[in-house]
Specification:
Layout lengths: L4 H15 E2 L2 E2 L3 H4 L15 H15 E2 L3 E2 L3 H15 L11 H14 L10 H12 L3 H8 L1 H20 L14 E4 L5 E4 L8 H12 L2 H17 L5 H13 L9 H15 L1 H21 L12
Antiparallel strand pairs: 1-2, 3-4, 5-6
Helix pairs in contact: 1-3, 3-10, 3-12, 4-5, 4-12, 5-8, 8-9, 8-12, 9-11, 10-12
């Protein structure tokens, strides 16, 4: 069976159709047969377009109506491989002077993989895994249980950092403006950011990316991502909604612990597009390093893949 972007997209769309029926969510045999890993998708073997299709498709699968979030092995596989591609030893996405941003991205990936476990082959193996978890220090165990909430909070500064990095023609990492630009505010009136002024709005940074920086392909993919967010909450533009999530979280009025994976996927989508030209060249070296670690039964501290 040939693994193509269309094949991946159809599997994810079919999963949503099977799981979301009559205003509710029902996960069972009818839906699980459409999982990517169960249908032969191996993330480390995907070309660029198929990896992008996986990011977009699994964004639809992870966040569902009612802001319900369901994370499964497909997501762990995607996040660990993308962590390797974007921040692993063989990647050059982050510049040497961007160590703080890289550390932030690594923290997001680690948080997203906290609950990843190798599927137990037997009840005895499952019991052994549970016993190991029980040996964790008390506070560490419960801290890890809150990893989805932690990811949701850490993913906002990560998204801002990725946006500023991608829009470096216009913005410095501290938000100061290098080149004048204009975006429409929520009242549909133009707002001008002049040189040396400060842009501290994640909403305006998203629109800057979308309107001034993104090429046609990234813009099309952002449209697909935005369409999914709108299908869950059509009260605001998706970029405005992300801005609202960020402000409500920052000010403590709400916590959106189900959105971390969705925001991480948006960061990954933007970062991967910045790597498109070098993608094929880098992937071979990254994969060979992962294979060497696997052959020697060794995991470096900077390793992300495989997820367990």
């Amino acid at each position: 069976m040939e693994i193509t972007p269309g094949f991946i997209k159809k599997l994810c769309d079919d999963w949503v159709c099977a799981a979301c029926k009559n205003g509710g969510i029902s996960i069972g045999s009818d839906s699980e047969k459409y999982r990517l890993l169960a249908n032969g998708v191996q993330f480390h073997l995907l070309d660029f377009d198929s990896l992008i299709a996986s990011v977009l498709g699994l964004s639809k699968v992870i966040l569902l109506p009612g802001m319900n979030s369901f994370v499964v092995q497909d997501h762990f596989g995607l996040w660990s491989w993308c962590g390797e591609v974007i921040a692993g030893a063989g990647s050059h996405y982050f510049e040497p002077n961007e160590r703080e941003i890289k550390s932030l991205f690594e923290a997001c990936i680690r948080a997203s993989l906290t609950h990843c476990r190798k599927p137990a082959a037997s009840p005895e193996e499952h019991m052994k895994q549970s016993e190991v978890e029980q040996q964790l220090p008390h506070n560490a165990r419960y801290f890890l249980q809150d990893s989805s909430l932690i990811l949701a909070y850490v993913s906002f500064p990560m998204l801002e950092a990725i946006l500023k990095k991608t829009c470096s023609e216009y913005l410095r990492m501290d938000g100061s403006v290098k080149k004048q630009f204009q975006v429409m505010n929520r009242a549909k009136k133009p707002r001008t950011y002049k040189v040396s002024s400060l842009c501290s709005s994640i909403r305006d940074e998203l629109f800057l990316l979308y309107e001034k920086v993104a090429d046609k392909e990234l813009k099309t993919n952002l449209d697909e991502f935005r369409a999914h967010i709108s299908s869950l909450d059509s009260s605001s533009d998706p970029f405005d909604l992300i801005y609202e999530w960020r402000n409500q979280s920052l000010h403590g009025s709400s916590n959106f612990q189900t959105i971390g994976g969705t925001l991480l996927n948006l960061c990954i989508l933007i970062a991967l597009h910045s790597m498109k030209v070098e993608f094929g060249q880098w992937i071979g070296n990254i994969l060979r390093r992962c294979e060497r670690e696997s052959d020697h039964g060794f995991r470096a501290s900077w390793s992300f893949y495989p997820p367990y």
